Amino acid sequence: MPTSQFGELAQVNSYGIAVSASSNADYTLSGEDRNGDVSGNDPNLTFKVGDEVTFSVNVAHCGTTWRNESSSRY
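Above: the chain sequence. Below: its structure as tokens.
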């Protein structure tokens, strides 16, 4: 479990973000970050070190659909 610079346990949260794109100009995100709900084109996201973030990506480019789901700790 991550600790802060003062040695106490840091609060670790898990978040899910769905990612789609109707063109190559913007990514549309929907989900939650440390500040609450996020949605829309290219929004800012806020996380802390140790948070687990799962991006569910469903993006079509040039007639090919790319789907991926991954979790990462930052």
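The mean pLDDT is 78.
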